[in-house]
Amino acid sequence: MRLARNRLGSDRLLCENSAEPTVADATFPDRLMKIHIALLAALLVAIGPTVSGATTPPTLVPPAVRVAGVDVGGMRPYLARRKIRKHFKHQLRVIVKQGTAWKASPYLFASSAGIGETVQLALGAKPGARLTLPVAVHKEWIRQYVDYLDHIFSRPAVDATFLGLRGLRPAVSSARYGVRVRKAVMVHRIERSVTENRRVPIRMALAPVAPAKLRTSFNQPVIVIRRLSNQLYLYKGARFWRRFGVATGQTAYPTPTGAFTILYMQRWPTWIPPASPWAAGAK
Predict the structure, then answer these.
(1) Is the pLDDT confidence value at 36 over 90?
(2) Sequence-distant contacts of 154-160: CB under 8 A, at least 24 apart
């Protein structure tokens, strides 16, 4: 018998007169072969479906399911989330008048929208289900925006006023109606548009504001005396009513000009001469 080194680097015991290996010589290669076979089997299990073409079917939203009006039926979850998010980000349009619109992002009024949670619910919904989108709306933010719209688009009413004489005739300015934003209505419309994920145009809710005084409110008598023609013109407001002949002051003592208010009036009054040289001896 002699001791020799094999190709694997380990010592083995050989019999000079026998070609059969000992038990110690056969154990290690068998064990190594078993390890290789096990690794190959695990690898085949891992890549088997890929090699054979078999894949796990994707998870899809049931057919005809809608989330806040958005059709996500038959879509993968990440595509459904993307579509809902894109629709939610569409700006709100407030129509002021024909051809004029104000745009606002929905995130001016809402801090978040439960898109991910709703898509998870949609995966387990029945075909054709209608799901709502939970939105965290802040009413105070909406009120602040409506106050801003009211500041921009509201205007006060203008009352009619007496302007005095224009061309020896009394003149009254025209009244003008104002307009105001109906705040409660606008808050409701914007809140509904955000919470229901509606992006139809929102028409501005406006209400007229009437002036306190119209031109017809000025119907009190106005007297205009024309000194050159010694004529008194009587008006009701700015509308001519009657005309009378009157005596006016002399050239040396002319009737004063200006606007005056009658505080006391008598019918057929008695004239008392003033204590002035020009009225001496008058009765």
Answers:
(1) no
(2) 154/178, 154/179, 154/180, 154/181, 155/179, 156/209, 157/209, 157/210, 157/211, 157/212, 158/211, 159/211, 159/212, 159/213, 160/211, 160/213, 160/214, 160/215, 160/217, 160/218
pLDDT tens-place string over residues 202-257: 999 999 999 999 988 888 899 999 999 999 999 998 899 999 999 998 888 788 88
What are the φ/ψ torsions at residue 81 (nearest 5 degrees)?
-60, -40
- Distance between alpha carbon 43 and the CA centroid of its chain, in Å? 59
Residue 131 pLDDT more than 80?
Answer: yes
Q: Is 202 helix (H, G, I), strand (E, B) or coil?
A: strand
Distances (CA, A) of 139 to 94, 144, 181: 17, 9, 17
Map residue 182 onto helix, strand or coil.
coil
pLDDT at 151 over 80: yes
* pTM of the shown model: 0.65
Identify the H or E element spanning 85.
helix 77-88
User: Residues near 107 by Cβ (< 8 Å), separated by ≥ 6?
Assistant: 89
Which tens digit of pLDDT belongs to each residue from 166-187?
A: 989 999 999 999 999 999 999 9
- Determine contact, residues 205/186, Cβ cutoff 8 Å: yes
Return the structure tokens found at 62: 């049931």
Residue type, position 40, single letter:
L
Distance of CA 231 to the CA centre of its chain: 63
Could you tell me which of 203, 207, 95, 218 has the C-alpha nearest to residue 157? Answer: 207
**278 contact partners, CB below 8 Å, separation of at least 6:** 252, 253
Q: Are 118 and 67 in contact (CB under 8 A)?
A: yes
- Angle formed by the axes of helices 139-153 and 183-195, nearest 10°: 130
Q: How far is CA 187 from the centre of its chain?
A: 9
Q: Is 157 exposed, middle or buried (0-12, 13-18, 19+ CB in 10 A)?
A: middle
